[in-house]
Amino acid sequence: MTRAVDRTEELAVFLRTRRERLDPAAFGLPARRQARRTPGLRREEVAELAGVSIDYIVRLEQARGLRPSAEVVEALAGALRLSPGERAYLYGLAQQQPRSADKPAAVAAEPLAQLIADLSPLPAMLLNHRYDILAWNREMTRLLVDFETLPPSQRNAMWLCLRHPELQKFYTDRETVVRQGIAHLRAAWATHPDDAELSDLIAEFLAQDEEFARWWAERDVAINGRGLKVLRHPEAGELTVRFEVLAPLENPDQRVLIYRAADDDSRSVLRQLFTS
Fold it and tell me: In the chain, what are the domains?
C-alpha cells in the first residue's frame, strides 16, 4: 500500500533531482570547475539564480520543514528551468497557487483555432478567462451573431449578453445565464489579480449595467462547465442546446465551448439553420 505523500520530503527530492539534471554549459558555466563532484548545478549556483541564500536551498533539499512562498516557488521554477507541468507540480508541493501572467494571451492558440473549425457542424467557439471570443466556426455565427462584423472590443460573451440588442432577449432564462457568467468572472478576477483588462471590463459593466452591479455584489463564485440553455433564435425559433466547456492542458487560460442539440426538435432546427 502506497503511503501518503510527504510534501516536505517530496519537495526536497524534486528540487535536488531537477538541479542535478541541469547542464552547467547551458548557463555558461564550465563543465568542470574545481572538479565538479556532483552532476548538474551546485546549490550555490541555484541560490544565485533564484535570488535566495545558499542556506535556504540546503534546508529545502534536506526537508527541514520550510514552506516556500509563491514568489520563491516562481523563482526556483525559473532557476531550474522547469516545464509547465513541473512548475505546476512544484507549486502543488509547496501548497501555493501560481500567479497568472500580467496579461494572458488574447489570441487564439493556433491548434485550438483549427479544432474549433474542425468541430463543424457543431457550433463551437474559443474563449479566454475574460470571456473574450478568440475563434469561432460558421455554425456559431449562424446561431449567435456574426463576430466578424463586431469590433474586437465587443467580441466578449458577457458584453454581448448584456449590451448587444439582438442577444438581450436571446436566452429564455437570461438572468441565470448572466448570473453564471458573473460568477465565472468573479472566479477569474480572483485568480488573475494582475489582469488589468479584466479589471477594466468588470469596472465598465459595474458602471453601465445595473443588473450586473446588483448581481456582482452578491459575490457568487462558480465555474459552470456543462448544462442546458433554451435559446430564442430570431429566424429558427426556440431550441434547446447542451453546452460543454473544455479546458486545454496546453493553454489553461483558453476554453473550448461546444453547443449540441438537446432533443430531436432542436436538432432539426439547427440542421435547417445551418443549411439555409
Answer: 7-93 (1.10.260.40), 110-275 (3.30.450.180)
